[in-house]
Task: structure prediction
Amino acid sequence: QVQLVESGGDLVQAGGSLRLSCRASGSIFSINTMGWYRQAPGKQRDLVADITPGGDIYYADSVKGRFTISRDNAVNTVYLLMNSLKPDDTGVYYCKMAVQRQPFPVYVYDYWGQGTQVTVSS
Result:
């Protein structure tokens, strides 16, 4: 099996910063795209940022210029550095990884973390 464990969520004032981490463990051959999603109260879960093994990065328009996603393949970890936080950034942040568990056959499965709460006060 594969487990994703997130950390770094907290209560912070507007304008502050947080760094989220998500580490995968278990039966892993390789990891394709790693991403962060956000679910605000009463809303759907939306993609915030993701990063491919080659370093191609996507950011939602709402976080461009404030958030930075990065990955460390040696330790199967994805990070999200969040600067200039706003109350609208409040929500539960989930990481997702596309994991290939063995060389062959080439099956890739999506795994989710349990979520970490980020609360930004005004």
Remarks:
- Residues 18 and 82 are 5 Å apart (CA to CA).
- The chain has a mean pLDDT of 97.
